[in-house]
Write a structure and sequence with these properties.
This protein is an alpha/beta fold. It contains eleven helices and nine strands. The protein is about 35% helix and about 15% strand.
Length: about 280
């Protein structure tokens, strides 16, 4: 698929000697059909600033710009990729800002103008950490309106998991408390260079205007962590350090003290956090 006058991504990789580094969690997506499709999954990009983390040789970057993004801010930790990204910037003058930076250490907000979407084929080694950061800002609603992110399929399934499933846990509660996450697309290992050992999936998150149920954020987080850290135990045991009257607090929240963490809905955990706060 030809979306611009730039060379195919295989040629870009060869020209700039961009062998993927395992230490950086790199697995390049070189099919421009796929990168363009991921860009479309993010929604209408016209009039939006788009934050991209880990663009690598720029396949998704090109898809975002070709799809009409007002501006793309690309954070790339690997300095080897910067010359390839600069070539894209020349074709889209004034629309691509490139920073050789680690997304975990870089304050990007001063470089973005609302409305903002975040779209990224996230490096596997930092994907969950970045998602948690974007879901837990000091103030809500967040600076972004949507996230469209590539994860390992196993992580994606944890994000959308429901009570009673083995994948259900802290990540599902956090994501579903503040957003509507949905798996939009799955990709096999052979879609990447080099092929990872796992399947991947793209998850789209729409930010809610406010959390789905009222709850004190810090107490909800700590309570959920305590419950799932001992997920095989009954809640009256795993949460006994949260309150000397934990059985009464659980019952007041509509939860049986003998229940286990994976059985409790998001609404139930929010009710429990409110009970512990009071």
């Amino acid at each position: 698929m030809q979306i611009d006058q730039l060379p195919p991504l295989h040629d870009v990789i060869s020209t700039h000697s961009l062998n993927a580094k395992k230490s950086l969690g790199q697995n390049f997506l070189l099919d421009l059909n796929l990168t363009a499709k991921i860009a479309r999954l993010a929604g209408d990009l016209e009039g939006y600033d788009v934050l991209e983390v880990g663009p690598g040789p720029g396949g998704l970057t090109r898809g975002l710009l070709a799809s009409g993004a007002r501006r793309v801010i690309a954070l790339e930790k690997d300095p080897r990729c910067i010359p390839a990204l600069n070539e894209i910037a020349e074709v889209y003058p004034g629309q691509l800002d490139i920073f050789n930076a680690d997304a975990l250490d870089f304050d990007v907000r001063s470089h973005l103008t609302v409305p903002i979407r975040i779209v990224a084929n996230l490096p596997y080694n930092v994907g969950t950490a970045l998602l948690i950061r974007w879901l837990t800002p000091k103030d809500w609603p967040p600076f972004w309106s949507t996230l469209t992110l590539m994860f390992q399929k196993e992580v994606a399934e944890r994000i959308i998991a429901t009570p009673g499933s083995k994948s259900y846990g802290r990540l599902a509660i956090l994501a579903q408390w503040k957003s509507n996450p949905k798996i939009m697309m799955e990709l096999p290992p052979e879609a990447f260079t080099p092929p990872p050992k796992v399947h991947s999936a793209v998850v789209h998150f729409d930010a809610l205007p406010e959390p789905r149920f009222p709850a004190p954020a810090g107490l909800l987080t700590s309570t959920v962590a305590m419950a799932f850290n001992q997920r095989r135990k009954m809640l009256r045991s795993s949460l006994k350090s949260a309150s000397p009257n934990i059985e009464n607090v659980l019952r007041d929240a509509g939860i049986e003290p003998t229940a286990r963490a994976e059985e409790i809905s998001l609404e139930g955990f929010c009710a429990l956090a409110r009970g512990l706060a009071s």
